[in-house]
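queue> holo job accepted (zinc ion)
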Amino acid sequence: MPARTDSFDLGRLKLSSGEGRRLELEVALDPLRFGGETYVVTPPAAVAVLDISRTTHHGHALRLRFDAALRGPCMRCLEPAEPALSVDAREVDQPGDVEELRSPYVADEVLDLHAWARDALALALPAQLLCREDCAGLCPVCGTDLNAAGPDHAHERAPDPRWAKLGDLKFD
Ligand SMILES: [Zn+2]
Ligand SMILES: [Zn+2]
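queue> job finished
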């Protein structure tokens, strides 16, 4: 495993303008809250590929890539789910008077890798975290897990009370 890295000193690389470097770093990933539930990241650290290039304006262009799996309840059926996510994030940090472009994760040429990885993972979340893409969810009538019950699970239509009344009428 590469060294665990929470922050990375970009200046230490001493890249000249236009030069780039690709690094593999281990980044810690915190549990995240989503839809009122907590999802832990498994494993809690990922091997990330960090591409760093020195821009021609004394800044840095950065790209961060890693894969991570979350573990928590499926948002449809509540069974354990372990959706896998791929993160591919980019940042530019370019100090200067004319074309200033600052990254919130870079201060004094030090990259806050931990915070960037956390936010990038949150941005990579799908709309719903599911046990599987076609999770059938729970029956809206009785709450049965429809993945286990199968597509034939059905309920007799509850008798409409208005029709029950009609049934009491007697026609001579
Ligand atoms: Zn599910
Ligand atoms: Zn049901």
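queue> The chain has three helices and ten strands.
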